């Protein structure tokens, strides 16, 4: 296969980090929190049971709006940008794909481990205190929504070293192959429904590849007319496949398992991001925005994992009070979403302060050596097993505890973080060929990667 070339593309250096990407990721996170605040509406019945309504999904106007609010593909696009750059930085220091997998696992699994353990303990206490089991199960199910994203995002990130190598050799062929696999799976999902879940890999890896192309300047060196054409054509195609009922029109329905619609959205969002990049970069340069992102941007996984359990717990407790509870979908209910959003952000502040440090980049000790490759692979499998179980069968209280144990075991298997060797240079290349690479860190050198 011939190597694809981008004649006009100048690849950024490994040390470059685009502040616009950080701002986009932070904005997407706020949109997710706000959207969930507009979805959750629990109702307490006279027999003590609780049901929940998804208000947004019942609104007719939400289907077209979801084309704009469904920013999950954009998460994977910016994850592809930062993931590719992080991999290249690590590789330049002599790191391997297993080092990258270890670092990514630690960065994502440790915050999730704390959430699952805390929820499992808290819900068991609530059950022993006499809370109705149906309410416990309802709150347990609320934790499943962050977990599916964690599984999909972690799988895509673990594939970065392999996909980056394919991207460097044949970027357009790699992307085209993923698109072909997505269409094939979508064509067969009616006859083999379980096959649809393989698109959890193909769709999100394809969207991540858009981030690779964005990072390497493929979209940057296209004209504004070309970018507008991509946005219009991808949305027209999306309207066509949903209009003839090949796919559902509601993007929330299309997300789990994902299908071609999410890739089309990702393509449109990538072109839009490039089109608006100068303005976004200007906003990202404002001092107060830099300060907010510097604090909250490094706690994004903690915010994502905890906001929904906090929202469910808060609204559940409010049902036991005498505070007015407007009927879901009324004007009073919609106005109440503002204080609900503010309350969730307020509750997140102490949670982020306590648990956010689990996202800190671990620094390798002077004697640290990384785990074996078998340990890294085992850790990844141990994490994905309970998550896959939850995706197929739903999350239960027992699985919540089992997941916390599996995540803790994964962290133990990963052990200390090895610090990669220094960036290679022509003078040191000969020495490195003669001596085995050292895993000892340079003083003060951080071992982890920026997400």
Descriptive report:
- The chain is mainly alpha-helical.
- 66% of the residues lie in helices and 2% in strands.
- The protein is built from 18 helices and 2 strands.
- The protein has helices spanning 19-37, 62-69, 72-92, 97-128, 133-142, 144-158, 160-169, 171-188, 199-215, 224-243, 260-275, 277-284, 287-296, 300-318, 331-355, 373-393, 397-414, 426-434, and strands at residues 40-44, 50-54.
- A two-stranded antiparallel ribbon has the order 1-2.
- α3 (72-92) crosses α9 (199-215) and α6 (144-158) runs antiparallel to α16 (373-393).
- It is globular and about 60 Å long.
- The chain starts with 18 loop residues before the first helix and ends in a 17-residue tail after the last helix.
Summarize it:
The protein is mainly alpha-helical.
Assign a percent range to the helix content. 55-70%
> What proportion strand?
under 5%
Structural class: mainly alpha
Count of helix runs: 18
Uncertain residue segments: 7-15, 363-368, 421-451
Mean pLDDT: 82
Radius of gyration: 23 Å
Q: Please provide the count of β strands.
A: 2
SSE ordering? HEEHHHHHHHHHHHHHHHHH
């Amino acid at each position: 296969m011939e190597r694809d070339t981008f004649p006009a593309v100048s690849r950024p250096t490994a040390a470059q980090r685009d502040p616009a990407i950080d701002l986009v990721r932070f904005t997407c996170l706020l949109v997710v929190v706000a959207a969930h605040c507009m979805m959750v509406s629990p109702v307490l019945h006279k027999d003590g049971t609780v049901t929940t309504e998804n208000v947004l999904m019942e609104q007719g106007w939400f289907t077209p709006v979801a084309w704009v609010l469904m920013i999950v593909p954009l998460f994977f696009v910016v994850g592809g940008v930062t993931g590719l750059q992080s991999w290249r930085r690590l590789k330049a220091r002599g790191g391997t794909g297993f080092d990258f997998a270890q670092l990514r696992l630690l960065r994502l699994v440790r915050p999730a481990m704390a959430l699952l353990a805390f929820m499992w303990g808290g819900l068991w206490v609530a059950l022993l205190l006499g809370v109705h089991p149906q309410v416990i199960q309802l709150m347990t199910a609320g934790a499943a929504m962050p977990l599916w994203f964690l599984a999909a995002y972690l799988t895509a990130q673990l594939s970065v070293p392999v996909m980056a190598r394919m991207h460097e050799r044949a970027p357009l062929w790699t992307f085209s192959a993923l698109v072909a696999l997505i269409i094939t799976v979508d064509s067969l999902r009616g006859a083999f429904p379980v096959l649809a879940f393989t698109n959890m890999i193909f769709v999100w890896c394809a969207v991540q590849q858009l981030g690779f192309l964005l990072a390497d300047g493929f979209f940057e060196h296209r004209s504004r007319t070309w970018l507008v054409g991509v946005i219009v054509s991808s949305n027209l195609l999306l309207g066509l496949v949903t209009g003839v009922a090949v796919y559902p029109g509601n993007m929330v329905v299309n997300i789990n398992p994902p299908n071609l619609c999410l890739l089309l959205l990702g393509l449109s969002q990538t072109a839009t991001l490039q089109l608006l990049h100068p303005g976004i970069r200007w906003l990202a340069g404002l001092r107060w925005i830099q300060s907010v992102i510097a604090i909250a941007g490094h706690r994004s996984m903690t915010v994502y994992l905890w906001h929904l359990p906090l929202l469910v717990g808060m609204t559940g407790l409010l049902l036991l009070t005498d505070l007015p509870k407007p009927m879901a979908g009324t004007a009073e209910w919609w106005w109440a979403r503002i204080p609900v959003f503010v309350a969730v952000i307020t509750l997140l502040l102490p949670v982020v302060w306590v648990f956010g440090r689990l996202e800190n980049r671990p620094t390798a000790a002077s004697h640290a050596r990384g785990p074996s490759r078998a340990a890294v692979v085992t850790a990844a499998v141990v994490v994905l097993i309970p998550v896959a179980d939850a995706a197929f069968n739903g999350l239960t209280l027992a699985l919540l505890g089992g997941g916390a144990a599996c995540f803790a075991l994964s962290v133990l298997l990963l052990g200390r973080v090895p610090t990669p060797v220094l960036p290679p240079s022509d003078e040191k290349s000969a020495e490195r060929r003669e001596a085995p690479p050292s895993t000892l860190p340079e003083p003060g050198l951080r071992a982890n990667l920026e997400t």
